[in-house]
Write a structure and sequence with these properties.
- This protein is of the alpha+beta class.
- The chain folds into three domains: about 200 residues, no CATH class; about 120 residues, no CATH class; about 40 residues, no CATH class.
- It is built from twelve helices and 15 strands.
- The strands form five sheets. Strands 1, 2, 3, 4, 5, 12 and 13 form a seven-stranded mixed beta sheet that branches. It has a two-stranded antiparallel sheet with strand order 6-7.
- Strand 12 and strand 13 form a beta hairpin.
- Helix 8 crosses helix 9 and helix 9 crosses helix 10.
- The longest helix is centred in the N-terminal third of the chain and has 22 residues.
- The chain is globular and about 80 Å long.
- It starts with 7 loop residues before the first helix and ends with a helix.
- The structure holds zinc ion (ZN).
Amino acid sequence: MKKSFEKSENFYQESLFTFSSYKSYCAIDTINIEIGEVKKIFKVNSLTSEPIKFAFQPKDGLVRVSLKNGSVEESNILSSLLSIKDNNIENYRKFFEKNGFFYPLKGDKYVEIDDNSLLLIVGRMKATVELMSQISEVQRKNYDRILTLTLALLLKPQIEIKIGDHVYKTSKHEKLSNELLIASNIADNSFNFKTDENYVFTIKDSIYGYSKMHLDVYRNLKTDELILDNFWRKVLHSYVNHEDSDKDVRLMIEVLYHVYFNIGNFSSCSFEKINFSENPKWDNFDEPLKHALLEVAKIVVAEEINSSLTGIFPEYDSSIMEPRWRVDSLISALYFSIFYMKPNIELTRICANPRCGNYFTISRTSSKKKYCSPQCANRAIQNRYRANKKSAEK
Ligand SMILES: [Zn+2]
């Protein structure tokens, strides 16, 4: 959809930031690892003969502007990217060809990224936007989603992409990772614990006031590598021995501890679901824990955005005598547009039609709207009608 601006220079004047880049050439190699296992490698190269320009305005989002006549070639680039289905690799290729790569490319060598890393980078962006939206839902917050997205963002491995001699990295969530890094230096106080007559000791806890643990259970968990892996041993160690750590860090540790030890331990967590090892005890997902989770989710969103807002410079535009921001990579421009989202005013939702997956924006008060378009709403009604008919026929 092309929208032409009569006064194109006004568009730049009103934009909060701009970003200049190049279209790219993108090829995809398929590597057969073993029968049924295929890996796709994106190979991207900048087309320096085809410059492109982006601008951001709160009401239009990030748009790509034609350098020829100033018209808007594509609006809301963030939504276009987030609406690509994970399995539609070809559409990612098209996205890079039109908008260039996430990171600035140097020289004429291909930069390579495998499909899993690419999907993780986009997955983090999707999860951040959805989490922001879930946190701000007025009427009914979906705490299961908030839990899944928060854990996935916190626990997923960091992706590194090397371009020339620069390494670009996704968020590491430094507060938590630094705490776990120093965890081994925090003394284990278990020999000094004051226990009651049943060898139960008390831990200060900002969610519940305090919690109790049996000394033998604690020592078993700490020493038996078959029960707890290294990561969760560190979480446990920090929870028991570092009650006075930084407030945000303490809350993260407490939430992780209570989710893992009270709701249920899990082997892994994707953006879709937590893979619990046994039936989770949802009764333990109570109001105090939900409240604390919400605080942690806010910290996680802030860390995701802050760590991706690199290479942003203030710039004084002498032609219009106004300050503006200049951004040096598409990934920063995308996160900058997430940064400017105002979840108090509007929400970005995923269309409730499972076959659609589009992201759309609604005002926070019209929170009933579940579908991106009348077509999707109709399809949902038809599907429900057909499903009812089928079950009636049985
Ligand atoms: Zn839809």
